[in-house]
Amino acid sequence: MKRLIAVVIALAALTGPLHAQASMKKSGEKSSLQIEEEQKKKDAERIDQEYKAALKRSQGAAAEKTVTDPWQNMRGADDSKTKR
Length: 84
Fold this sequence. Notes:
The protein is built from two helices and no strands. With about 80 residues, it is an all-alpha fold.
């Protein structure tokens, strides 16, 4: 009889948190874990949008960039290969 009472008390103690979670789901409240996960999704979407915008900006700048010769001021006016 003592074992039966101990088992019933143990089961009651273990099922208490389950009832609390079930009542939270019924009432529509969000747990802190759900709120944190939603925030992470929003942050990931924002970062992805910023990344795509940066890619567009860098591709646009690369297309507009002209090829320059960094040694143009160091060469003479007539620098042909035939004179070498």
